[in-house]
Hints:
The chain has helices at about 15-20, 30-40, 80-85; strands at about 5-10, 25, 50, 55-60, 65-70, 75, 75-80, 85-95. With about 100 residues, the protein is of the alpha+beta class.
Amino acid sequence: xxxxxxIIYRPHKGNIDESMEQAKEFASVQEMKEYIxxxxxxxxxxxDIVIKEDAYKDDRIGWNDVRLVTIKRLGExxxxxxxxxxxxxxxxxxxxx
Length: 97
């Protein structure tokens, strides 16, 4: 049985299979964000990670509240200034099989 704070993350990849192969579970959102920053070689800070509020169900993988994980900057690139919004790097969910 999962704890209330568990969360799963998968990076944005070319296809769902490749993305799911790299999916990881975490005990908290903070732990997930720390992992993401390290995985991206510290090219941004935890504060640069934005988890979108809008959730959707993805029946392909059994995630019932999928949210987009985005970043406000990548290195010196300010995604907000450049694109007008944070850029997607992956997906997360707390209600999943």
